[in-house]
Request: fold
Amino acid sequence: MKITRIEVWPVTMRLLEPYRIAYEVIESATNVFLRIETDEGIGGIGCAAPDEQITGETPDDVLSALGDVVEPAVLGADPLRSACLLEMLRPQLKQRPSAMAALDMALHDLLGHKSGLPVWKLLGGYRDSIMTSITIGILPEQETLEQALGWVQQGFRSLKLKGGVDVESDIARLMRVREAVGPDIELRFDANQGFTLEQAVRFVEGTRDAGVELFEQPTPKADPAVLASVTRQVHLPVMADESLMTLRDAFHLAKDELADMVNVKLMKVGGIAEALHINSVARAAGLEVMVGCMDESCLGIAAGLHFALARPNVQYADLDSHLALEGDPCAGAVRIVDGILYPNDAPGFGVTLD
Ligand code: MG
Reply:
């Protein structure tokens, strides 16, 4: 089998509602899609969701990485040798993790189409569904409550609140949400690096009665020692998100006991192949794993889901960005029922594009 054609195109999707996190307000998302075609008429599709703050890429960076680096390198190559192709391109795409993820995804999708199997089964098929949290950005208290109750009414059992700008108002908001949704809904909190050590400890003390499930990236990634101090000092599981970009980061987080959990996002780490390596490090170190997402199309969500379904120790999912997007060309690649995510049973990632 030979790769005969590569197609790369950007899609900008509006968010149904803009949302605010500790360091920015987000109103739309541009994903870059990649389609691989072969001489056997079988193809594969992937997408990149670049984010300058997190992956360090703009959509233009990804377009040139896929067009100028990936395309000439893979034309004529055998797409079933994905390890060979990804390893060959790894040095050149070191600073382009979401472009790497798009290629990795397209190769996995193609393998699925070739074998007639969904990717989660090709990778081992450990479970067939997983609960996802739904994220609520930084909003005034009343709006936060309305959103929280709205999601619970739609069947979601796990909410992730964003914060990290003002610790006292974060505590107040979280306590009000707990009061409103009752004890049976899981509450996660993500400070997106916004707290100091003292504020992080204060947040945990102030929300002790709310039974928060996990505390994501409390402090800046630039200072791993502070993250480690939070992890040692608080009773809640502390999760590294921005602090985990590479396999090497996973090793350091584990070796230096910087966190209790890690948030693996395919766009940060460069796709499923690398996520599987990171997952093995986490498993060896006893770090719990959540699969998360950037502002990505349902195709990216499907890829994250298929990874999570295949691995026993990926027990948490935060795969909700597709619910906020308008005009997603891959809508329908996953199903969501009462906050539980299911893949569709089609081969690959279950996406058909005209
Ligand atoms: Mg996060």
Q: What stands out?
A: The CA atoms of residues 160 and 188 lie 4 Å apart. The mean pLDDT is 96.
